[in-house]
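Input (Secretin/TonB short N-terminal domain-containing protein):
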Amino acid sequence: MEKQEQGGEKVLNQKGRENNKREGLTKTVVVLVAVMIVFAASGVVGAQEKAAGSAEVISLNVTQMNLQDVLRLIAEKANLNIIVSKEVSGVVSVRLKNVNLWDALGAILETNDFSYREEKGIIRVVKLQEILKEQRPMLTRVIPLKHATAEDMKKASQHLLSDSGTMEVDVRSNTLVITDASENIENVRLLVAKLDTGIPVFNLMGILFTADRPLAMINSQILGVGETIGDFTVSEIGEDSVTVRRGDETVILRLTEEGRAGER
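Output:
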């Protein structure tokens, strides 16, 4: 009986050594692919427990791993519902030890300019810039106009607003009412200051020198010296500029290389 017990003990020891070898081989493979993920918590919990202050901890060692693969691995192990769009891409190299799951997820995404938003137990991966825009305070400012109409100025400046910004026109007071982040409102204000001068917008499209006289094309009109556009008169046509005057006001229009033509 004792022999059998000793023999039995020997067999168990052999199996133990074989198991140890297998385990060692597995660990070696894990190190070679440089991916190790361990969840140390009393139980794996879902995204719905985040708000309750989950104590879930993650250790992660990743080298040059596709971002979407990392997210799928975390989603599977932590029982999370993660939505990843096609635009989410990148490569992750990170070593984390005993880090809160949500802190780790945020750090992994931010290294590739992404973040996440939780909506009813679903983790949606979005561009980091979207989150930053949402976090910026929205302000409302009123910009009065002196010469241009508010409707025309809205058409000229509305493109400077963010997706969540708004611009309303108050016709009675000829003002713009803008709600957006402060930097976007400031961009609109600067454009208004540049355009709301009472001087028409002139587009010098070309200058032509002929044997008789020079001609300029302004706002699709061909004009010579002494001719008028609106209440401005062309007073001088140079090689690359045209001067127009209205009383004491003088406006010099500059020509780009593309607008030059004609003979000398």
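Residues 2-33 form the longest helix (32 residues).
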